[in-house]
Amino acid sequence: MLRSQFFGNLEQGQVPGHFTLQNSKMLRVHLNGEVLARQGSMVAFQGQMEFDYEGAGGMGKFLKKAVTGEGVPLMRVRGQGLLFVANNADDIHLFYLENDGITVNGTNILAYDPQLQSDIQRVQGAGVAAGGLFNTTLTGTGWVALTAHGTPVMLDCGRAPTFADGQSAIAWSTSLQVGVNKTFKAGALIGRGSGEAMQLAYQGQGFVLVQASEGPPVIGEGGKGGLGGLLSG
């Protein structure tokens, strides 16, 4: 089961209470052990804590991250107390996984429980030249905190064919079949791109969370974007 404010099933008492929104733009973690958070996201803490760089988690994950550009630099925070994290005053949204999974854009990850398993996967039909359509899948039981630039919309893909800009889609159900919808019309520059309008196409029963932005402009990359910023360096 996947719990979220979007589904109306995130009632207190039904989930562990260590992830809490201090406000819409700041996450409060009641830490008694460990948590993984985006590097540089700590804005304050009370108590005793240690902050360490978190590696990719083995050579396989390191290579995937190096090749795809997907993922986010993480830090492992250990200790006891209250940890406050945020990222550029972006809106924060919480998901609680109960033996379930969620696919996310790595750049939108703010924090998650360390017992969750993570992997980098490629969107079907999107090769290396497709603009970096790689995403991070988190599975297991625990909290995930995601950031969104502006208030997002949750779309039910079971109601109608659903398409989203690759830079605006920040999370979706692992049960969905996801492909690439392309158009080469010169006047149809949908989203930020280098001449090819590209959208993600979703089929099946599930949701996709779409933020109200394509993200900040990337300077010096010739307009290239995409999930995870493939080949951006």
From TrEMBL:
Quote the protein name from its UniProt record: AIM24 family protein
InterPro entries found in the cross-reference section: AIM24, AIM24_sf, Trp_RNA-bd_attenuator-like_dom
Query: May I ask which residue range the UniProt record assigns to the signal sequence?
Result: none
Q: Per the UniProt entry, what species is this protein from, by scientific name?
A: Actinomadura fulvescens
- Highest taxon of the source? Bacteria
